[in-house]
Amino acid sequence: MADTLSQEEIDQLLNSIGDEEQTDGESVQPIIEEKKVREYNFRRPTKFSREQSRTLQLIHENFARELSTYLSGRCRTYVEVRYASLDQITFSEFQQSLTSPTYISIFSTDVLSGNSILQIGLDVGYVIIDTLLGGPGTAIDELRAPTEIETSILRKESNVMLRSLSKSWSIIADFDISLEKVETNPQFVQIAPPNEMIVLITLSITIKDTQGFINLCFPSSTLEPISDKLSTRMWQQVFKKSEMSHKNLENLLMLSKLKLSAVLGKSKLYLNDILNLSIGDVIRLDSFYEDPIDLNVQNTPIFKVKVGTNKGFYAVKIEEENEALLEKIIIEKNIKEATNNKNNKKTDGGVENVG
After folding, report:
1. pTM > 0.90: yes or no
2. How many domains does the chain have?
3. 128-162: per-residue pLDDT in tens?
4. Which residues cross the membrane (predicted)?
5. Contact 87, 200 (CB under 8 A)
6. Is the bond into 101 cis (omega within 30 degrees of 0)?
């Protein structure tokens, strides 16, 4: 008669069977992929990518350099203008950040729709005005609304600044900027809805001991038509010369004026001999009257000519070309062509054997 198993032995047997199943085949656990969640602020959505922001930064870094050069010349002192920051905020936030009074230029372009803002702090605005009027360029203690004359001066200067801005933007879009109107109270400026996102570019400006800021405000709806062009690859664009442009360049070169001079001869004298020269003295040249002389083009001897007269004027007749100079030009041209061919082979991945 078979022995009966106790309950403890049955439990041990079941546990051993479970362990064997786990060692023989691994149990497949369902893999749950975690979804990457990115925060998105519906009140302040990001309209422009990091690459587009970088392009805008490059444009306005160039604008800051142009502005620094212009204001240094106008104010007759060193003016430092630097790119400070780029932010994407709502128009109402920008409007509330401005103090009153201030100087605001509202401008538009012939390509982009809508208006934009160039804002200059009056702390540096009054220093610019004082310098332009012949003063020492000292800052005022308390800000006040500018007078009509002061507003007219700032309007003229901002017009020039906007032309420099148009020049800086020409790599992306070629447009003309026109100044629409000027305001001193930011609450009266409404170029976009309060909740519309804008691109705010801030430049720091230092004139003598006064430091301030210049702000550029572009609504997102204004820059949207050219958003595809706001890429750093546009800065490395290579323009192919067409046959028409080559012909136009050739025509411009053909209209260039060159200086021609006929050299009768040369001589070397000591300084003491030159000081002792008097009327009637004869200086011997290194050429004979029957020999042809050099005809220089931009101080470079090109032709050998004979001296004579034509219709009562002194004239020269071309006898021959300067073969030595032509040989030099041909050699330099061949060297240049050989260098270009060698560079092209390296670019194509070819290997050049020298033996």
Report:
1. no
2. 2
3. 999 999 888 888 888 899 999 999 999 999 999 99
4. none
5. yes
6. yes
